[in-house]
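FORM 7B: Structural annotation worksheet

SECTION A. Query
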Amino acid sequence: DGEVHMNELKNGNTEMFWNPTSEVRRQRLKRHIVLFEEQMDFESERLWQHVTSAINKGDQHKATQEKFVLEEEQRNAARERRESGTEWKPLLFRHDAATNEWRYKYEDLRPWDPLNDIAQFEKDGILQTMERHLSTRMSNHKATCINNQITRHKRSAKDCRHRKTSDQPSNHSQNTESSCSTPESVQELSDDDGKYLRFESLCAQCGKEMNHLKEIHSAVLSLQKAQQDIHR
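SECTION B. Predicted structure
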């Protein structure tokens, strides 16, 4: 939170390296931490409280002593586990044999989805994302609708061909053609064979979900524009 300078020993020049200006402070994310009295014994802030206190007081000797105490306790605990044959099972981390590193079990590296993701938070050490799930529900429902329409279309086409072959060449042929025509309110989609099939418009629920997502997207864009205006 303070200024950091680089001092050139050869010529005595001093250069600004870091300056946390008021502008920098305004851009910081709000920090959320567990209250100290609610933390468990092995959580960082509580575990290292005496080391932190000594550092803040500028007492490097005391900070080194407190750090040694903590490390010695950890060594003793590891020695006792080895002697008793107790296996250490981390709750939140796993060992990656390929890189020989410890990785957080619940890391989430996917891009943030502004239309579906609401907030990200940590609970009991597990990183979680609150989602709307509208995109997933809509995609699944839309796929079901399309599959159902493909099935109906193929069945209708099969019945139509069957009626055409069974009818005698007569004045009824014109009526047969009209009875197998496709409704006007349609859209074209390609099936697995590359042929184009014509379907009825998506069901009401799909349309409603689509409109809802469009409204959310518009709201997000509006918020982003407002934030940019405020920043300027």
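SECTION C. Observations
The chain has a mean pLDDT of 77. The beta strands are 4-7, 14-18, 93-96, 101-104, 117-123, 126-131, 186-190, 196-200.

SECTION D. Sign-off
Analyst initials: ____
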